[in-house]
Amino acid sequence: MSSLDPRINRLELPQIPGGEILKNQEHWITYEVFHIKKRGDHPVHVGCVHAPHPDLALVFAKEQYGRRLACVSLWVCKSSDIHAFSMEDEDMFYSAVSDEKKYRDASGFKVRDKINKFKKGNSDALV
Amino acid sequence: MHSIKNLLYNIADDLLIMGHRHSEWTGLGPILEEDISFSSLAQDKIGLAYQIYKILNETEKEDLPDRIAFLRNESQYRCCQFVELPNGEYDFSLIRHFLFDHAMDLRFRMFGKSNYQPLSFLSRKTAGEMKYHILHADIWIKQLGNNNEISHVRMQKAIEVAFPYSLGMFETFPFEKELIELGIYQGEQEIKISWLEKISMILKEANFNLPDPEKIKPVFGGRTGNHTGFLKPLLEEMNEVYSSDPETEW
Amino acid sequence: MYGGGYIFDKLQDNQVNDDPEKLLLFEERIARGEKIEPRDWMPFDYRRQLIRLIEQHAHSEIIGALPEGTWITRAPGFKRKLALIAKVQDEIGHGQLLYSAAETLGKSRENMINDLLNGKSKYSNVFNYPAETWADVTVIGFLIDAGAIINQITNSKGSYAPYCRALERICYEESFHLKQGHEGLVFLATGTFVQREMLQDALNRWWEPIMHFFGPPDKASVHSEKLMKWKVKMASNDDMRQEFLNTYVPKIWELGLTLPDPKLKKNTETNKWEYTEPNWETFWQVINGNGPCNKERLKVRMWAEEHGRWVRDALKTNQLTQSVPLA
Ligand SMILES: [Fe+2]
Ligand SMILES: [Fe+2]
Ligand SMILES: [Fe+2]
User: Which residue, A78, C8, C20, C64, could crosslink C1 as a Cys pair with Cβ 3.0–4.6 Å?
Assistant: First the structure.
């Protein structure tokens, strides 16, 4: 069999054995990648890479996530080192946006009406 | 050939052929992440070769970069034989990348102080790229040296095959002396000395043995247009489409 | 590239009994337009079909790197040479992103690649055709990537969050592929007689695979209703094909090139494109391994895995459990 790709013609192509060809973990473990767009920005999660250890994870992340996106640095950490809440517990976070918690929010404090009313009262009094 | 042109052709041809060889791995790398990383090395080298051909064209009045790269025959090429060799397995490709990029990095650092302005400018522009290439090479060499027996043996063998050829990167050429006197750069010997120092240190950390450079006969010839049998077919392949009609746009 | 013409498993409702209460909440969430995250409860079949869908897409990317890779060492001129390497690199990158998305559903990348190699899992049929000349690279880059974009933008509105996130990034890169493909194609179309002939020949050869790209006509597909409801499948094959024809056929015709289908035209009354049905028997033949390049493609992938093994083994980690990306 001859390929149209000269690169391929230089290889000796193997037969494909049946069954399990790659063993599990053969592609190492996964690292999560965080991307810092510019100085002053928060790191943002952008994806993951398979790597055997942090050094190589950083190199891989640099090319997979930094070759097109502008960025000044990257973080990586083992996926298994990240601790997260279950998405099912999202109701626990509801209070942050609930109406009853307005006292924690700037929108819960409104003075413009009062000031306007006061000003109006004063100017009326001056007449 | 005017002296500076000579130097520029040497480096650009090295970079182009090295990048071309690297690009043969794109899509076939040992793991997807490394495939991507190695492909960037290929692009950076070909891209840098282009920049140097551009200097040749714009400053030294040579032909257009595409025509220089895609229309010369092998005896007109000035690359060292080291870069022409087929990729072989990943061991040889990695070692070559390691030996080549350290030399290129030191060379370009030297160019940073060159009084030939296009080169010192290019040196500043590519410093970050070079840093990444070195980082990539060093991590791999250290990992493959220190981890398991099989990879250690393979890599050590590859070093022994590659080393005599790699010395060919520092082959002198007719105008070298003149360039040193003109303050263009400090010459091949200087680069070689710092290179040997650098790579010996890293190879030692990785538990590899570097053959004694005094006892090794360097493979020269490339700088005078004498090449291995691998360059001719490589160029024919590279030029196949372009040279079918060099007058049209592709 | 390219996830066109997915093959879904038959849905087997009675095989699994998903908790009806959870199913209801799940379906309500999707109906509200919310996304599903990896650790959410999901119906058995949702997980299974998504793994299949995303893994096929990932395979299509890494196998899709091969037909264009055919011309990497021969691309004419610096610009084309660099752009082609960068493009093929992107496709490998897309594969990486997509495998990671599929991994969040619990199937390891190693097993996905095993299923690619042993033929259990398919990839887009177009990549089983050879790239015979340089013009093929431009046709693939323009038209196949165009098809891919339509497909991927559609899928990016689906319900599974990791897949959507990957597609968002991929679509951004595909637009570069489309542009460079189009530019290369226009250069040939407006070039010499020989260049035009080369391009016309490539178009003629690629037309049928391109018509196959979005998969069999809707009337032939049996199980899309539930997949549509779950936002796994986001548009019908025929709709995507129509969108493709509507946007790209005019861009071929405006260059004075032809497509090998005398019936191909837009019906001004229905606003739909009419065309000759491609041979679907051929489509199935190729999917089942009998296309011109199926064997080579898989063997090349096998070569890469096999020759990379000592490199990967040298850096083996001693972690014993499978590692799963988070998001
Ligand atoms: Fe794609
Ligand atoms: Fe892609
Ligand atoms: Fe693409």
Answer: C64
B20 contacts in A (CB within 8 Å)? Answer: none
Measured between CB atoms, which of C74, C88, C311 is closest to B241?
A: C74
Contact between chains at A7 and B24 (C-beta distance less than 8 A): yes
CATH match of A26-122 with 3.40.30.10: no
How many residues does this entry show for chain A?
127
Structure tokens at C123: 């990839």
A59 in contact with C at a CB cutoff of 8 Å?
A: no
* Closest to C125 measured CA to CA, from C299, C237, C326, C282: C282
| Segment holding A32, helix H or strand E | strand A29-36
Q: What is the CATH number of the domain that holds C77?
A: 1.20.1260.10
Best to test chain A binding among B23, B28, B37 (most A CBs inside 10 Å): B37
Give chain C positions within 8 Å (CB) of A29: 317, 319, 323
Tell me: the pLDDT tens digits for C117-149? 999 999 999 999 999 999 999 999 999 999 999
Q: Helix, strand, coil: what percent of chain C each, to 5?
A: 65, 0, 35
Report pLDDT digits (tens) over B201-241. 999 999 999 999 999 999 999 999 999 999 999 999 999 99
Under a CB-based contact definition with an 8 Å cutoff, are residues C325 and C104 in contact?
A: yes
Name the residue facing C109 among A5, A11, A50 (closest C-beta): A50
Candidates A4, A13, A49; nearest CB to C70: A4
Q: How far is A91 from chain C (nearest CA, A)?
A: 14
With tokens 């395979």, the residue in question is C59
Q: Can you give the pTM of this predicted structure?
A: 0.95
**Residue B152 burial (10 A CB sphere; 0-12, 13-18, 19+):** middle
Query: Domain for residue C213, yes or no?
Result: yes
* Domain layout of chain A by residue ranges: 26-122
**Can you tell me the distance from the alpha carbon of B100 to that of B84, in angstroms, rounded to the nearest whole number?**
12
Chain A, 17-56: which have a CB under 8 Å from a chain C CB? 18-30, 32, 45, 47-50, 52-53, 56
Read off the pLDDT of residues A65-83 as tens digits, 9 standing for 90 and up.
Answer: 999 888 999 999 999 999 9
Give the residue among C107, C130, C103 at the shortest CA–CA distance from C120. Answer: C107
- Tell me how close the Cα of C43 comes to any Cα of chain B, in angstroms: 31
Residue of B nearest to C189 (CA): B250
Contact, B43 vs B70, CB < 8 A? no
Give, for A29, the enclosing helix (H) or strand (E): strand A29-36
Residue C110 forms part of a structural domain:
yes
Query: Nearest bound ligand to CA C4?
Result: 1
Asked if the C-beta of B50 comes within 8 angstroms of chain C's C-beta atoms, the answer is yes
pLDDT-derived band at A24, boundaries 50, 70, 90:
confident
Question: How much of chain B exceeds pLDDT 70, in percent?
Answer: 99
Q: Which residue among A15, A21, A32 places its CB closest to the CB of C114?
A: A21
Bridge partners, residue C160, by sequence: C36
Q: Is the pLDDT of residue C294 over 70?
A: yes
Chain B interface, best mutation among A3, A7, A58, by max B CB count within 10 A? A7
Domain membership of residue C122 (yes or no) is yes
Question: Which residue segment(s) compose the domain that C226 sits in?
Answer: 27-310
Chain A residue closest in CA terms to C320: A25
pLDDT tier for residue C10 given thresholds of 50, 70 and 90: low
Domains, chain B, with CATH or none: 2-244 (1.20.1260.10)
Name, in order, each residue with C-beta under 8 angstroms of C206's C-beta and a sequence gap of 6 or more. C126, C129, C136, C139, C140, C143, C144
Query: What domain count does chain C have?
Result: 1
What span, in angstroms and rounded, lies between the C-alpha atoms of C295 and C307? 18
